């Protein structure tokens, strides 16, 4: 049994954050552990409150796990503050555990989930010790200060992010203008790159997609898959989770974490090497 960890905020609505990560881990047959960085009062309509955890207690949670479990992969989600990010980065320097960074900044309803001064901490402290970073288009623009409109822009932003020291950059294409396909672009430090294409699904029920995708990468990587295969399987996981959505709540509903085990044989991801 492989053991993986999520370091993120709690979503009381269950569609994102710690809850989404643990559901994903369970579905992919890895044992999930957690470090909670903040509590949120939220549902499918939005976030009505955030209560951060003290950085010292975030560290205490993380150290407790590392002292007892042979963790095979870790991921971060909402980290809230520069103090928390600094704390996590300082611990990760001394571990050899693969780290997937989902740079959560804004909730689906538009609420800010990351303090402005924490962005520099992600760039300067966390990405240098990370294996993979998974920004969507707005997050990649915020991290680099570069506007993304073309594939050339995506390549330039990925190059800037790779210069931080992270080994792999995944620019998620859900915010791109293509009405037919959702295309993600993946870039490695060694110069290799490829893209993943799936049909775009017309659904408002996409709450927690970023959390779920990065959690799936964490689970597959922690299970022993090479990075490229882990990313492709995670794409299948989130594609099916959106396709067979649950339509819960009155706003942006959660994705379906159960779908992959039932429909994975039917999901095709088109890979373009570059």
Q: What global shape is seen? A: globular
Computed over alpha carbons, the radius of gyration is 17 Å
Q: Outline the low-pLDDT stretches.
A: none
Distance between the termini: 35 Å
Mean pLDDT: 94
Outline the biggest β-sheet.
Answer: 10 strands, mixed
Helical content, roughly?
25-40%
How much of the polypeptide forms β-strand, as a percent range? 15-25%
Verbal overview:
The structure is a single chain. With 274 residues, the chain is α/β, with parallel strands linked by helices. The protein is built from nine helices and ten strands. The chain has a ten-stranded mixed beta sheet, with helices on both faces. Helix 1 (17-27) packs across helix 7 (209-222), helix 3 packs parallel to helix 4 (118-126) and helix 5 (137-144) crosses helix 6. It is globular. The model has no long low-confidence stretch (mean pLDDT 94).
Topology:
Layout: E1 3-11, H1 17-27, E2 31-43, E3 46-52, H2 55-68, E4 71-76, H3 82-92, E5 99-101, H4 118-126, E6 132-133, H5 137-144, H6 151-162, E7 168-171, E8 181-188, E9 193-199, H7 209-222, H8 227-243, H9 259-263, E10 270-273
Parallel strand pairs: 1-2, 1-4, 4-5, 5-6, 6-7
Antiparallel strand pairs: 2-3, 7-8, 8-9, 9-10
């Amino acid at each position: 049994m492989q053991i993986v960890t999520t370091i993120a905020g709690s979503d009381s609505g269950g569609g994102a954050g710690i809850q989404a990560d643990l559901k994903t881990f369970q579905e992919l047959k890895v044992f999930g552990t957690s470090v909670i960085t903040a509590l949120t009062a939220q549902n499918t309509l939005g976030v009505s409150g955030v209560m951060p955890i003290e950085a010292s207690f975030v560290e205490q949670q993380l150290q407790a796990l590392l002292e007892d479990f042979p963790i095979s992969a870790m991921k971060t989600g909402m980290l809230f503050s520069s103090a928390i990010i600094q704390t996590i980065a300082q611990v990760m320097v001394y571990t050899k555990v693969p780290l997937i960074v989902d740079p959560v900044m804004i909730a689906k309803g538009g609420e800010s989930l990351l303090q402005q001064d924490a962005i520099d901490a992600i760039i300067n402290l966390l990405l240098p010790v990370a294996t993979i970073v998974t920004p969507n288009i707005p997050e990649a623009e915020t991290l680099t200060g570069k506007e993304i409109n073309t594939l050339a822009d995506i390549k330039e932003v990925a190059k800037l992010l790779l210069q931080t020291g992270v080994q792999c950059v995944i620019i998620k294409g859900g915010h791109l203008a293509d009405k037919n396909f959702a295309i993600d672009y993946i870039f490695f430090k060694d110069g290799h790159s490829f893209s993943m294409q799936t049909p775009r699904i017309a659904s408002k029920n996409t709450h927690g997609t970023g959390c779920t995708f990065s959690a799936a990468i964490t689970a597959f990587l922690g299970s022993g898959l090479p990075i490229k295969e882990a990313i492709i399987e995670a794409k299948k996981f989130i594609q099916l989770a959106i396709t067979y959505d649950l339509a819960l709540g009155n706003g942006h509903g959660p994705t379906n974490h159960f779908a992959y085990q039932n429909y994975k044989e039917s999901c095709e991801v088109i890979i373009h090497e570059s």
